[in-house]
Amino acid sequence: MLQNYAGVGVFFLIAAIFPLILLATAWLVRPKRPSPEKLSTYECGLETQGPTWVQFKISYFLYALIFVIFDVETVFLYPWAVKFQALTLFAFVEMIIFIGILVIGLWYAWKEGALEWL
Amino acid sequence: MELVMSLSIEILTAILATGLLIIGLVTPKDQRRGIGYLTTAGLLGILGATLFMNNVDKTLLDGMYIIDPYSTFFKQLFLLAAILVSVGSYDYIRRLGYNQGEYFSLLVYATLGMMILASAGDLITLYLGLELMTITFFILTAYRKKDAKSSEAGIKYVILGAMSSAVLLYGLSLIYGATGTTVIKDIAAALQQDIQPIMLLGTIFVLVGFGFKISAVPFHMWSPDIYEGAPTPVTGFLAVASKAAGFAAMIRLFIIALPALQSYWVVIVMVLAAFTVLFGNFVAIPQTNIKRLLAYSSIAQAGYLLFGLVAYSALGVAAILFHSILYVFANLGAFIVVIAFGNHTGSDEIKDYSGLARRSPLMAAVMLLSLLSLAGIPPLAGFVSKFYLFTSIIDKGYFWLAFVGIGMSMVSVYYYLVVVKVMYMGEPPEDSEPIKLPVSIQAALYVTMFITVFFGIYPSPLTNVALSVAKAFFPF
User: Fold this and answer.
1) Can you tell me the distance from the alpha carbon of B108 to that of B86, in angstroms, rounded to the nearest whole number?
2) Inter-chain contact B25–A111, Cβ cutoff 8 Å?
3) Total number of domains in chain B
4) Which of B50, B145, B164, B336 could lock B212 by a disulfide, CB 3.0 to 4.6 Å apart?
5) Residue B112 CA, distance from chain mean position
6) Which residues, listed in sequence order, are joined to residue B349 by a DSSP beta bridge?
């Protein structure tokens, strides 16, 4: 039992150490010539504007939630579609019920205005 | 098809919950009163359907789902609680004025989660049911979204609930790691040979996780704040049904899956039970808010219920079943009075109950009987159920625990009677008028009162049911 996990442990250790070695090597080899221009915050090549601690619209969160639901739906749909030929009618009905429940959820979110960008 | 038939109760509940959501969507905002009545009718129908399931004993889906008399008993308990809560919610939710369809739909979804929890034969199903119930309760707790206290309670519940779920899940994963199976029956078989230390660690984590869910001391800190902040009908449902659901799953897991470790966990459960009873009763004394008082009293009741698990016998399980079903009626009776009083006066302070006996004799009488039943005064039902709980542990020789329980029952009489004194001896405020109750609330109050008195005087029908269910459930 423990031997089986030892492999995982070794793998985990190497995975943790490897990026450290890379960073250390880069730090040793690279030239260091800092200037104020270089040390300033990088934001897509533009001058930074305003403080970072601003409020985000909660709508992002709602969109993300609805996205996740349909993402998960795809995960379930994919194996079902691949094996569709071998499955019975029962599986088809099951999937219709599953999608139906999700559609009700989308309907609800729509009606309650979760998809509107105010 | 046979599978669908066996799962018909759960499927009907899911259809009811989703149907209520759809009805809430298609009806105009000012015509949603009927949704509450529809919920009660639907739940009554499902309760009727469970009566046909009383003798079914089946294991479905390779042990993942169990439908036995034990789970059916708990399902009936959850449905009874949900029916009483839905009746108590009509006016409360109408006053809020928004999202009526969702409220009742969520109530039914929470009931579905509890049903899955009681029927789970597998650790993953158990966790799924638990999350369906808990996440629904997060939303219900924060339902008064314009009230800061309710939002605070919701956030607290999310954080602490997530933490306790994490602890529970970690414990379940350790048990899986040590035994190589998630099916509850197979875990017991895998533990026949030797017990690894990691198994003990897993058991402790699981115990802590369930300790949070049933609010046993020292894992109770969340409950008074959340009970106070949540909408009152939700508090009632949380205190009664979610606790019973936690017990249903906990008893199945500990008695069916972990009998090999019984000598270890019984010590912890015993200490938890003693602390819970002591703390819950003593801290209830100085409370001035009726919801907080009932919160601490429900912590104490969880302690009494743990006695049945300590006893580890068919009688102990029967006592838990008996106590929890009477606890539904006694506690929800008290909560419906609190809801109706809050609807009328907008206050939950005990001092405002002054002279309630003159303003509404029915409310005062139900409160009196419910509180005395919770305290365990004969001839009310609470006395009989506590008697069985204490008998079950005395049978096993835990005299000191029984003494703690009996002593604390006396303490509880004091703080329950303080409320009664305010209601009966206090003067009603000068500008007060008699409180008129809607017919639905009156009916619910009469039912709880009748059951509390009836099963106190004539407990044997319910005792026989509880004993036969427990004997079928308990393996030894």
Assistant:
1) 9
2) yes
3) 1
4) B164
5) 14
6) B289
